Amino acid sequence: MKKILQYIALLVMVFMLIINVYDYFIGENLGTNSDSNKYKVIRVVDGDTFEINFDGKKEKVRLIGVDTPESVHPDANRNVKEGKLTSEYTKKYLEGKEVTLEFDVQERDKYGRLLAYVWYEGEMYNKHLLNIGYAKIATYPPNVRYVDEFTALQEVARENKVGLWETVTNEDPNTEQSLTGYIGNENSKKFHRPDCNSVEKMSESNKVMFNSRKDAINQGYGPCGVCKP
Ligand SMILES: [Zn+2]
């Protein structure tokens, strides 16, 4: 009997040792990955999306709060030269570099991508893109920690007509549109400008809001033939 008790005590000790060792090497890593860990950017997908090596796993990261023009859409007509420009820019700036991720309320979007504020050499890349006018604000509540700063940066870029704002006047209705969003019909799978007649006729329960064209298209919605969003 005494022997069995000794044996059990030994088992418990070994078990606790294993837990401690596990905690030391793995638990600690998991606990601190929000701010201090650096991740290597292995491939840039487009201006606002890239892949990192996330603790040995390949993960996609989408910048929070900003949107760059389309460059890798399967429908080539959707891709614009500004999209290529911002994509190349992000590639030069971040590919192969070590970045730090800062998360907001939601860690991932509906496509499973990590949503992050991306820091490189003490600067937030999301802000950097707005600053040089290579991205526009796209607000995705509840991830709005820096929305005021982002808005201020975009206003300055717009006033100074830098980057994408170079050829845009402040009165351009298309610009306003890209900042206020689109409305989709869940039944027809079409999306519209908010002032389209179809939106008035649509029942509230069928309405789906999109922050950007890209967002609507990514979710399988097609542009309305009347209001041509
Ligand atoms: Zn329409």
Average pLDDT number = 83
Nearest-angstrom radius of gyration?
A: 23 Å
Q: Please identify the structural class as seen in this structure.
A: alpha+beta
Contiguous runs where pLDDT drops below 50 for at least 5 residues: 26-35, 170-179
CATH class of the largest domain: Mainly Beta
Please describe the biggest sheet, giving its number of strands, its sense, and whether it closes into a barrel: 5 strands, mixed, barrel
Which distinct ligands sit in these coordinates?
zinc ion
Q: What is the domain total for the residues?
A: 2
Which architecture of the largest domain does the CATH hierarchy give at level 2? Beta Barrel
Strand order of the largest sheet: 1-2-3-6-5
**Based on DSSP secondary structure assignment, what is the total number of beta strands?**
12
Number of helical elements: 7
How much helix is in the residues?
A: 25-40%
What is the terminal-to-terminal distance?
A: 81 Å
From the structure provided, what is the oligomeric state, counting identical versus distinct chains?
single chain
